[in-house]
Each structure stands twice: as structure tokens, then as C-alpha cells.
Amino acid sequence: MAADIDRPIDAADADKAGLVDAVLHECAAHLRALAAEPGFATAIDLRSLPLDDAQRQVLRERLGRGEVRAVVDVAGPTTVDETTFAGLWWVRHEGADGGVLAEQIVVARVPELLLAHPADVADAAARLRGALGAVAPDDPMEDDDG
Fold this sequence. Notes:
By secondary structure, the chain is an alpha+beta fold. The protein has a domain of 100 residues: Ribosomal Protein S8, Chain: A, domain 1 (2-Layer Sandwich). Helices cover 36% and strands 21% of the residues. The chain has 3 helices and 5 strands. A hairpin with a 3-residue loop joins strand 2 and strand 3. The radius of gyration is 20 Å and the shape is globular. 19% of the residues are buried.
């Protein structure tokens, strides 16, 4: 979905536009920080703001949908959608019953949720080595003790 950031706001939406615009300005400020410092990351908790469903929908439409979508399945689905603005991600956590538990705009190069945890990577390496049965003697990852 293309960004609809410049779409005109009709009279029915005018009362709701103020908070949506405030969130967009906050996103812009956070993107400037991310551009200046690539390790910067923050999130805007949309469920803690006095946004109704219609306002969240307007906000989502104005940010648009980018090229990347990921679904993480832990105690219910979490969708991570890139917006049309690099560094802005729409993250929605649902419970097993389908109810929305949290909804955020994450400002980061990649949301931390999608980064592999170091302990998980170490476990994966051990499992793959075990599945292969033996490690080559010249394996640069093999410990001297191993």
C-alpha cells in the first residue's frame, strides 16, 4: 500500500487529525535521530495513546506499507510491517484469542524483535553441528578445547 501521507483530510476526519499528525511529527523526529545515529531505536506505544480504531487506521494509511513483512508466532501472532518510510515499522502483537495485546510504531533499522538472540544462535550452532555428526578438524569456529 502506498503512503497516503499527503492525502487531504475531510471535515469528518479533521477532529481526529490532530493526534494523528502529532504522532507523525514524533515519527519524523525519531527518524531524524535514527539517521544521525544508526544504533538509535525507540517505539511509540499506540495503545497507550487516546487513539480510536479510526485514528489508528488513518495513521496506518498515511504511513503506508513497505516491502517487508514478518510474522513471529509466540503465544499468538506478532506482525511486523515495514511502512513506506525506511526505519518505521508497524508492530502488532495479538494473543492466542486474536485480541490485540499491543500495537507500536518501532523506529529502528530493524526491530529488535526480529534479531536472533545470541543464546539462540549458540544453541542453533550446537544443534547443527550435532546434526552434521562431526566437525572438520580445520573448522575455524571450533574451540581449542573441543
